[in-house]
Design brief:
By secondary structure, this protein is an all-alpha fold. It has helices at about 5-20, 25-35, 35-50. The N and C termini lie far apart (about 60 Å).
Length: about 50
């Protein structure tokens, strides 16, 4: 049980460091810009097909 302890701490640190440099700013902008556009274009197409 002792060897897996240090490994878990390193994994958590790596995940925190990886999440820190990647803020949610680019994700929100990308989702907002891509969300409304593809959804609106897909909605009319689906209605016409049906």
């Amino acid at each position: 049980q002792q060897p897996p302890a240090p490994q878990t701490t390193q994994q958590k640190e790596t995940t925190e460091k990886t999440q820190q440099p990647q803020p949610r700013q680019p994700t929100e902008e990308a989702q907002q810009s891509q969300a409304p556009q593809p959804t609106e274009k897909q909605q009319p197409e689906a209605s016409q097909q049906t």
